[in-house]
Amino acid sequence: MEPAASEGGPEPVDDVVRAVPVRHPWRWVSAVAVSLVVAWILKGVLGVVDAATITQFQFSDLILKGLLLTVEISLLAQVLGTVLGVVLAVMRLSKNPVTSVTAWIYIWLFRGTPVLVQLLFWFAAVPLAFKTFSVGIPFTGVTFYEEPMAQFMTPFVVALLGLGLNEGAYMAEIVRAGILSVDEGQVEAAQALGMLPGRTMRRIVLPQAMRVIIPPTGNEFISMLKTSSLASVVLLEELLRNAQGIYQTNLKNLELLIVASLWYLALTTVASIGQYYLERRYARGAARELPDTPVQRLRRTLWIRTRARVED
């Protein structure tokens, strides 16, 4: 038996293991380095930017008018591209070689040329190649509507065709990937129930394919919001062109570009939130229990803290 410490024996050994946090000095070094770079950039930008000009034009009528036109042309071009993409994807998957090859050529052509070139083509080449725009029965001389092509191809129509037709090629590949992701057994089961191919596609295949189609489609729309700025080259008075018009008179280039950028950031943020909830809606068929949304997590946190205070 060991003698007690009070009796002159050895001190008792403390067998409690003390955890020592692992130190990460390079994390602090990298954080300081990144902070210095960000501070250097902000100092350089804020040192030459006139904040009063940004405040003055952020909500000016001309900027808001351009913003509204940007949203309008982006939505319409995305709708046109999505409808066209569904049609092209079905054509591409068709067993008819004519429709399949036609869809493949369309996708190859529009994905293989820059959007800017397509916009300039619609803006300059089409009015030269076709003098009039007419609706009627081909090769019969029967015409229901006719208008000079130069008047029909307004900047809005040019931007809509250029952006929408180009988007259709990309959406076709997205929709095709979504359709191919559906198990063939689903189609065979629908056919066994006597469903026709068109109804099988609308009622069975496309609803299941939406879970695969929605995320890249949301990404395409966010890209469309920014790509719509290319329409400024065909004289469409959207957000960027109106900002350019203002800084060509007051020479506040950087300030007006920041104004336009802030609005583009706001638009993409709203679109990203919409994409999140849309993906969540179509994920219900695959997930047993959906995770809480940020709003639900905030409510849960506030409720737990409130209950803890009441209990104290």
Question: Which characteristics define this entry?
Answer:
312 residues, flat, mainly alpha, two-stranded antiparallel sheet, disordered N terminus
The backbone outline, from C-alpha atoms, is flat
The class by helix and strand makeup works out as mainly alpha
Tally the helices. 12
Strand order of the largest sheet: 1-2
Order of helices and strands: HHHHHEEHHHHHHH
Cα radius of gyration in angstroms? 30 Å
| Mean of all residue-level pLDDT scores | 86
Total beta strand runs: 2
How much of the residues is beta strand, in percent?
A: under 5%
Name the poorly predicted regions.
Answer: 1-5
Task: Please outline the major beta sheet.
Answer: 2 strands, antiparallel
Helix content: over 70%
Please sum up the structure shown:
The chain has 312 residues and is mainly alpha-helical.
Structural overview:
By secondary structure, this protein is mainly alpha-helical. Helix content is 71%, strand content 4%. The chain has helices at residues 25-46, 51-58, 61-93, 97-111, 115-129, 149-152, 155-180, 184-192, 197-227, 239-250, 253-282, 294-311, and strands at 132-137, 142-148. The protein has a two-stranded antiparallel sheet. The longest helix has 33 residues, at 61-93. It starts with 24 loop residues before the first helix and ends with a helix.
What is the element layout, followed by pairings?
Blueprint: H1 25-46, H2 51-58, H3 61-93, H4 97-111, H5 115-129, E1 132-137, E2 142-148, H6 149-152, H7 155-180, H8 184-192, H9 197-227, H10 239-250, H11 253-282, H12 294-311
Antiparallel strand pairs: 1-2
Helix pairs in contact: 2-11, 3-4, 3-7, 3-9, 3-10, 4-7, 5-7, 7-9, 8-9, 9-11, 10-11
